[in-house]
Write a structure and sequence with these properties.
This protein is of the alpha+beta class. 21% of the residues lie in helices and 28% in strands. It has a 7-stranded mixed sheet with strand order 3-2-1-4-8-5-9, with helices on both faces. Helix 4 (114-123) runs parallel beside helix 6 and helix 6 (152-160) runs parallel beside helix 12. It is elongated, with a radius of gyration of 26 Å.
Length: 446
């Protein structure tokens, strides 16, 4: 890092506690992709129901391989039933024979222990994307014990990380897939026949970048299985938005507030301004920025909750670029202000004015940062509505089976959505889940 002198501010030299966008972060560790493929007999129905143009399982297998190749990643294939085993080199998950293996001694197609898969993923903290391909039929053969403990436990550990570090995200892709064959273990029914479509799922576990990259690869593949009217996506993680606003190009400056070249070599583009403290505090100068949090949210993210906002301020101590380069100062008071647009949708404004600038002093250089966040995760999120709509509870199963719908829903999927929402709530970063994050340098004149 180049040194700053008493007469020159070269770099930001961001203090501890500043947004990581200013201080930089270590390169994301990469690892192999590990794909877990559900080997239960019921999965054969997706093969039997496929057509020449709509064959989700074959497309998913090929697209996962293609994504690994594009990302220059090794891929490890595993099959899970009552046990997790390596996928044999010549195995073909796009063939019905892969699932109807009853004549072989090693056949393992009567259970799909999802709890063991999630526990293996939760216990393995090594880098790399994990992929689960399954029907997520959450019956008693999918886990031992209650859903909350058997599935919720490892899901919460995946999201929470170790000591709130190494937190991972979870993405759930649901495909409305053609199906022909029996649906096993339907509560109060046994085996149901007549389904012509069923949900097929791809669960992604990894960093936000890994998950969104895989999701983008699948959605841009032009596979009919991933047509918009067939696919839903939900994302659960600590950073649900592209929150960094950058150099605040859209900020409105008023009065004596002017853009200025205060740093000669900033580590990242950042707004630099100077203004008269007297004008700021009297309302004759200022800065305002309108922010629409919803527009910053990544696709499918679970994010809605109780809004909040905070700022942090440091005053330049003029002591080089070491730990003492900045000293903490009082935060801006009420800098985030909620608004409502003409159509009634909520928004927020970032304001530097007489109210928020009350504690600023003339003759200083300040680093001002802050985030607009949500501190809670609302249950029954809009982003997970599709999971509840595609779900059937044990109590509803007999009634649904009697109606014999073409699209047969998934057992207990709504309960899984609730567990993931609660896990995202418990994963809350300090200060909340950031939806909009800013920083600027301010030089105060008399």
């Amino acid at each position: 890092m180049a040194a700053c002198t008493d007469n020159e501010l070269a770099k930001i030299c961001a203090p501890e506690g500043a947004p990581f966008y200013l201080v930089g972060s270590e390169p994301e560790k990469v690892g192999p992709i590990t794909a877990y493929w559900d080997g239960s007999e019921s999965i054969a129905g997706y093969v039997d129901g496929a057509s020449a143009n709509l064959h989700p399982l074959a497309d998913v297998q090929r697209l996962i391989n293609d994504h690994a190749q594009d990302a220059s990643s090794e891929i490890v294939w595993k099959r899970f039933g009552s046990k997790i085993t390596a996928l044999p080199p010549r195995a073909d998950p796009a063939s019905a024979a892969f699932y109807r293996c009853g004549g072989t001694k090693t056949c393992d197609n009567q259970e799909s222990r999802l709890d063991d898969v999630l526990s293996e993923i939760a216990n393995d903290r090594s880098p790399g994307l994990r992929v689960i391909v399954s029907d997520l039929w959450l019956s008693t053969s999918a886990f031992k014990g209650s859903t909350e403990v058997a599935l919720g436990g490892p899901l919460r550990r995946i999201l929470a990380g170790q000591d709130s570090k190494d937190q991972r995200s979870i993405g759930v892709i649901g495909i409305r897939a053609p199906y022909r064959g029996p649906v096993y273990e339907v509560p109060n029914v046994g085996t149901h026949r007549g389904a012509r479509e069923r949900p097929l799922f791809i669960v992604l576990v990894g960093t936000r970048r890994e998950i969104l990259s895989a999701y983008k690869s699948l959605m841009e593949s032009r596979s009919p299985a991933f047509a918009e009217d067939r696919v839903h996506f939900s994302w659960f993680g600590p950073h649900p938005a592209a929150d960094w606003i950058g150099d605040l190009q859209q900020a409105r400056l008023s009065g004596s507030t002017l853009r200025a070249a205060l740093l000669t070599r900033p580590e990242t583009p950042i707004l630099q301004i100077e203004a008269s403290v007297k004008d700021l505090q009297s309302g004759k100068a200022g800065l305002s920025l309108a922010v629409d949090p919803a527009k910053r949210v990544i696709p499918g993210a679970v994010w809605q909750g109780e809004p909040s906002g905070f700022t942090r301020v440091w005053r330049r101590a003029d002591k080089g670029c070491g730990a003492a380069a900045w000293e903490a100062a009082p935060p801006l008071r009420g800098a985030w202000r909620t608004t409502a647009s003409d159509d009634g949708k909520p928004g927020v404004n970032l304001m530097l004015d007489g109210r928020s600038a009350a504690d600023l002093l003339p003759g200083h250089t300040y680093l001002v940062t802050g985030s607009y966040t949500t501190r809670t995760v609302d249950p029954n999120s809009e982003a997970t509505r599709w999971m509840r709509e595609w779900s059937v509870s044990p109590e509803q199963a007999l009634s649904v089976a009697n109606r014999n719908p073409a699209f047969f829903p998934t057992l207990n999927l709504g309960e899984l959505a609730a567990i993931l929402e609660k896990g995202a709530q418990d994963q809350q970063p300090e200060g909340g889940r950031p939806l909009a994050t800013f920083a600027f340098i301010l030089k105060t004149n008399p």
